[in-house]
């Protein structure tokens, strides 16, 4: 199955996914290999302040400074993503995944991390796929696989991210951005 791995790319929910956390979602794939895949939904802020979950981190979080629902798995666990500029070495408590995107160890004191990163987002839970599951979902038309841009993870407009990502794609994919949320409105 190699060659179909999507690490570092975005999964954009097709209109076929009509309900649940994945409806109109944009998922950043953190890791994808023959053993499965893990990712984070980038556009599901929940009504929870970061400090309520992780005291000391909220003042450093990218706007909106809310906890985001990263997916349906392990909602009681928190993951932090940060942007590490350029070719700088990984700061204390930070592990680069690809490009400028890195995971942050949330047990690290924020003041060791924050001065050397460019964005911070906290996620509760994540999305996970067993071996072959994501490839099957892509093959059956549940996801568009597109390139990610650094601003996607830390967008200040999570509600508009699905449309924004689709609009920057070539036609005919970009037309999906105008697909009504309720197909009966068509």
UniProtKB/TrEMBL annotation:
Gene3D superfamilies: VC0467-like. It comes from the Bacteria. SUPFAM superfamilies: VC0467-like. It holds the Pfam family DUF179. InterPro entries: AlgH-like (IPR003774). Belongs to the UPF0301 (AlgH) family. NCBIfam families: PRK00228.2-2 (NF001270). This is UPF0301 protein GCM10023168_25420. It comes from Fodinibacter luteus.
């Amino acid at each position: 199955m190699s060659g179909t791995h999507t690490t570092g790319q975005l999964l954009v929910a097709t209109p076929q996914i009509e309900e649940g956390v994945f409806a109109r979602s944009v998922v950043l794939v953190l890791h994808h290999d023959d053993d499965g895949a893990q990712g984070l939904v980038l556009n599901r802020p929940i009504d929870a302040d970061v400090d309520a979950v992780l005291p000391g981190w909220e003042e450093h979080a990218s706007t909106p400074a809310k906890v985001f629902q990263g997916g349906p798995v392990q909602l009681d666990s928190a993951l932090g993503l940060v942007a590490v500029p350029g070719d700088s070495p990984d700061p204390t408590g930070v592990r680069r995944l690809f490009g400028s995107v890195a995971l942050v160890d949330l047990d690290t004191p924020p003041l060791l991390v924050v001065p050397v990163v460019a964005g911070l987002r906290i996620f509760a839970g994540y999305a996970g796929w067993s071996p072959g599951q994501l490839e099957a979902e892509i093959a059956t038309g549940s996801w568009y696989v597109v390139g990610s841009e650094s601003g996607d993870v830390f967008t200040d407009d999570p509600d508009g991210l699905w449309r924004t990502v689709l609009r920057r794609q070539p036609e005919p994919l970009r037309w999906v951005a105008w697909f009504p949320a309720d197909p009966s409105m068509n």
